[in-house]
Amino acid sequence: MDVDSRLLRSFAAVAEEGNLTRAAERLYVSQPALTKQIKQLEQLLGVRLFTRSRAGMALTGPGRALAARTPDVLAAVDTAVRETRSAGRAEARVLRVGFLASAANEATQDIVADFGRRRPGLRVELRQAAWSNPTAGLADGEVDAALLRLPFPGQDTYRVEVLLTEERVAVLPSTHALAGRARLDFRELWDEPFIAAPPTTGPFCDYWLAVEARPADRPVKIGAVTDQPDEWLSAIANGYGVALAPASAARFYARPGVSYVPVDGVAPTSVGVAWAPADDENPVVRDFVRSCLRAVGEGPAGPTGSPTTGP
Amino acid sequence: MDVDSRLLRSFAAVAEEGNLTRAAERLYVSQPALTKQIKQLEQLLGVRLFTRSRAGMALTGPGRALAARTPDVLAAVDTAVRETRSAGRAEARVLRVGFLASAANEATQDIVADFGRRRPGLRVELRQAAWSNPTAGLADGEVDAALLRLPFPGQDTYRVEVLLTEERVAVLPSTHALAGRARLDFRELWDEPFIAAPPTTGPFCDYWLAVEARPADRPVKIGAVTDQPDEWLSAIANGYGVALAPASAARFYARPGVSYVPVDGVAPTSVGVAWAPADDENPVVRDFVRSCLRAVGEGPAGPTGSPTTGP
DNA sequence: CGACATCCATGCCGTCAGGTTATGGATGCA
DNA sequence: TGCATCCATAACCTGACGGCATGGATGTCG
């Protein structure tokens, strides 16, 4: 009689995709396994959830009823997990902060330093996330706050403060014909293969391919897919393709074989600090956000900068 | 990363009992199994949920956070299951009605007949529940409506219409000294062993032992525990004890070896129809409730009876 | 009309999660 | 000191569940 939330996640995936095979690969299980899970759920509920057909899996009436309720259930589970983990960290006097590679770059140190002055008893644990985890652990309660490039998937369900905005630059193999240029236009890169983030990251992936700055008849060519900064830099250095990056990457990820060139024709990129609405009243998280705003308000140069107005 | 709702149910039981051993028997699993489940949940969440001690299991801070959220999660799961099953029955053109043995008795046939006239296309499936299932399947979505003796556990979370009220009578072995009496007082039964419902039914069990009509220094003696009408009648006929029953039981459960005698000094008993709040707008359930009220309004004798005032 | 592609179901098998029983260690209590 | 209580651990066993390979149904296209 006990409906496992794992079955509900599978159900939700199949309901959304309308297709077992695709849902299976989205969930990283085999298609027969998913067939069995759905069967099991149907038997557990005593109800037929899908009508199987050549075209795929279509929801029945009861299936729609369940699909309508599933988000509530999964959200309740996620909330419970998130709050429990957060309470655990609070008890251990730890604030865990997730960040995506090259999110806050040099600002990060200033933020942590400022927070350390505000909350001497607390330890900040920084967690670097792969690009395939675009909320850097915020979604599953692994972290209390995250430093992210904006926009990120699910942004509307979190609180976000924008911290800073910077140009995007092109990252090229040093052997590339354009690598010596002082500046270039994004149009010159239309036909280059790009090093992309995993396609599961959706808008994030598209954003760093700048698909919006391309004509429809010049689709992006993918030279390689990487999930980590070092993979990414290696792929570029090896000539598999080029990429866009925030300007600060030139300072943080300088290495032999890779060149950074300012580029016109793509919008700048912003970094924000994000947290869960449930932590709105959490004084530690609030202090961390204050530290973020303060640190970037002071400017990246640190103590020599003059204080500016923070909210 | 996936928190199974079964683990949450286990967690909730341990949190409530504050004791692994007792929680284990409440959940019908062994104590080591529960130990492992709690350990697993703690590992999954990366948090210590209980402080173990000689005295039992006490919640930690994160444990309290989880305990605060668990009811939401379980309620969401139960709602989802209930609504899905209900949708399945609606699609199959079936209204499933649970009833406890001797709940509505003769009224039941009138109700079903009336409903059949209102909704010719629908089939009513009657499900008799054991006493150990005091909501007759309403709680787990097995049925759309239930005919129950009032009060029942969890009554506040459902909609209830009272249908009829009747005297309670004593049920005695025919060989019993009091069996020939035209009438007796409940005090005369204080020292008799009673045939009880399973103790897990709590208030329901107490109600039919009429513990409220007894002095504190005369605790009830239990002669046997039964979960079904036939077990119950057999136990009485075999002289294991006596019992209370609604007056209509004398007509519905008359059999050799069992005598029914009106009894003074215990409150009468009511029957109600109950349904889930989620079905408030469900036209089929509403019609069924109307049929219930109509049928008892007409009186149990059927078309010859004169209309009486319903609740 | 037949080869093919797509999509879901089934059979078989190996692994491991999760249950049970039996037992151990810690700790109050008589 | 022996006992009772309570949780943890060990050893073992069953079966749930996932993966692979394959089958059946059904559109599609050359």
From TrEMBL, chains A, B:
InterPro entries, alphabetized: LysR_HTH_N, LysR_subst-bd, WH-like_DNA-bd_sf, WH_DNA-bd_sf
HTH lysR-type domain: residues covered: 3-60
Signal peptide limits: none
Coiled coil: none
Highest taxon of source: Bacteria
Keywords, alphabetical: DNA-binding, Transcription, Transcription regulation
Pfam families membership: HTH_1, LysR_substrate
Family: Belongs to the LysR transcriptional regulatory family.
Name of the protein: LysR family transcriptional regulator
